[in-house]
Amino acid sequence: MGGAVTEVSVWAYPWDLHDIGLDQALAMLAAQGVGMISLATSYHAGRFLQPGNPKRRVWFPQDGTVYYRVDEARWEGAEIKPLQAEIVASEGDCLADLVARRDAGGPKVSCWTVCLHNTRLGMAHPEHVMRTAHGDPHYYALCPSSPAARAYVCGMVAEISERYRPDRIELESPDFMGFDHGFHHEKDGLGLLPEDRFLLGVCFCDHCLARARAARVPAEAARETAKALLDAAFAREVPAAQFPDFPARALDAFRALPELHAYLAWRSAPVTSLVAEIRAAADPATRVLVIAAEGAWWGGLDPARAAADCDGVLYCVYTVPAPEIAPQLADLRRAIGPDKTLVAGLQLFHPEVADASDLRARVTAARGVAEGLNFYNLGLVPARRLAWIGQALAG
Predict the structure, then answer these.
(1) What angle in degrees, to the nearest 10, is found between the helix axes of 268-281 and 258-266?
(2) 316: buried, middle or exposed (CB in 10 Å: 19+, 13-18, 0-12)?
């Protein structure tokens, strides 16, 4: 596969499609060569500046909700359950509308599904969130080792795929979330180094410890090592690197600490098995892709291993320099093999993407390897900037 782009999609929020008007939005995107909509069907909180939305110019979405009609009967007895966003009842089921248009000859439908990044659920179920080596909770991150969290994600994907039959589902955050970009108004007066941020995002919750012990990994020793490293960092007057070759050497930087290194290497196991369980739970007719990017190992995600248990990878190259996009995608293609789907994720943000010619260079690099392209994001950029997509595809 690769060499010929067969699917071009744009990520979109349901409120943007509501406000622009579904028919108008689809026509506008079709004019740029877009044949698929990647609709947010499960999402987290945020503050969004939306120059592409004619009504909601600054928007705070409801935290940790799903954007489809939930069948409450399916979730009877479940410990962790999805919450249907209020906008679905008040403004309509955008996913159902998109599927109906697809079935009438319209664009394909992909469900952009946030899995474990959910502060609302984390606050409600603190026994299922990630925990630091000191036992402190990361409320924004359900843990992929938690049976209840895994059942929630698998149940959500099963419900979406069976009831709506989208063409594909894109899995965001099925892994261990890091310490950064998880919560609002984050503060750091220490001056955390990359190694400190990484270790603060390594989960040592009871679920992880139990799974690691079952795999004969020295979990408690690893936790004590991580705790000592963090305590040492917290005690210094100013930061000083304990692992100066991190993150360049990735997990190999910790090889001198065998218990910790073994635990860090193990972290990909619950993530990979969760992806496999999600694929098994989904309707066979719906493709399941895992969203990844450079440095996915940071959260325990091995794209090649995950792709072996699903249908492929949506690999985001948002800030990758254009000359490096094709080599990165080619490496991933070799790792996942020729029969798995490879989609390149590109953004339309400025100044990260300077202009239409810059996007064209990125698209040209990606389309030589990937058979799909996803562009971020309909409402978060000016409507006029969407023309860059058409210009890039034509170039």
Answers:
(1) 10
(2) buried
Distance separating alpha carbons of residues 155 and 323, to the nearest angstrom? 40
SS3 231: helix
Residue 279 confidence (pLDDT) above 70: yes
Confidence of residue 3 (pLDDT cuts 50, 70, 90): low
Nearest residue to 196 via CA among 160, 227, 155: 227
Which 3 state secondary structure label does DSSP give 310? coil
Question: Does residue 343 contact residue 329 with C-beta atoms inside 8 Å?
Answer: no
- Name residue 291's beta-bridge partners: 314
pTM, 2 dp: 0.97
Rounded CA-CA distance 269/157 in Å is 20
CB atoms within 10 A of CB 92: 15
Residue type, 112: W
Taking the C-alpha atoms of residue 394 and residue 44, their distance in angstroms, rounded to an integer, is 35
User: CA of 268: how far to CAs of 12, 136, 273, 304, in Å?
Assistant: 30, 22, 9, 11
Q: How far apart are CA 271 and CA 341, in angstroms?
A: 19
- Running DSSP on this structure, what letter comes out for residue 62? P
Mean pLDDT of 272-297: 98
More confident residue, 183 or 46: 46
114 touches 172 (CB < 8 A):
yes
Look up the CATH number of domain 15-47+63-77+90-318+336-347+363-394. Answer: 3.20.20.80
Beta carbons of 291 and 345 less than 8 angstroms apart? yes
Q: Is 335 exposed, middle or buried (0-12, 13-18, 19+ CB in 10 A)?
A: middle
Buried b (16+ CB within 10 A) or exposed e, 128-138: bbbbbbeeebb
Contacts of residue 362, defined as CB under 8 A and 6 or more positions apart, other chains included, come to 317, 322, 325, 346, 353, 392
Domain ranges for the chain:
15-47+63-77+90-318+336-347+363-394
3-state helix, strand, coil in the chain (%, to 5): 45, 15, 40
Cβ atoms of residues 182 and 44 within 8 Å? no
34: number of Cβ within 10 Å:
27
Backbone angles phi, psi at 29, to 5 degrees: -75, -40
For 363, phi then psi, to 5°, come to -65, -40
pLDDT over 70 percentage in the chain: 99
- The pLDDT of residue 186: 82
